[in-house]
Write the structure tokens for this entry.
Amino acid sequence: MAEERAVRHAGALRDDRRRRVVEAELDESRARGRDEALAGADAAGLEDGHGRRGTKRKVSSHSLSFGPRFATLRGVKGTALAVALVVSVLTGGLASGTAHAQPRGFDPDAVYAVPLADSERRGPDDALLTIVEFSDFGCRFCVRAQHTLEQVERLYPGQVRWVFRHFPLDEDEGTLAAEAAVAAANQGRFWPMHDRLFAVRGQVDRAAVELYAAELGLDLTRFRHDLDSGAAKKVVLRDWQDGVR
């Protein structure tokens, strides 16, 4: 079933991209059960991690560790899994396809200021925990993290604020997908475009993103202008630069 869905997603893509989409879908299917079990765990070990605007608070004094397949946790349950995945992106573990055993320069006892800018977000501003996700629509680990984040939202309604920032790892497809999401956000349709792009693992070309825009009821003239004028690119570049600080 997973392979059939992947092939259907990849039907409009060039032949040389189909294999990657199928492999990502199968990998995600195998890992989903493990992710959901972790997301459903009790998060009682979290101290007050209230994330006010412009700040990401540390999660108690628990340590985060990163394995070769995806982030694992020591003494951290539930909500903190998503934080571990975000930290993994920020430290470059996902860019090479392999996460580091101990992220260089990461102090688990520090509180890091993470600018939110005008990034897309959902959840209350006074939520107990703010998760700032730097993500790439084509990254399989980022795809996997979406299921965890969505479960966290369901398990802890009103307690989590989810902020999305762009961190494309692929210079061509990844950047185009991110820019398409920004252009959709300019018309109030970021999250539907977000879901569509993750569904195809960010494997898109210009025709594909315009098709998605039309299906979401966007003004195509404005959508194309945001892509062609460089306005969307500026937002993506700003997010990426914040992510590598």
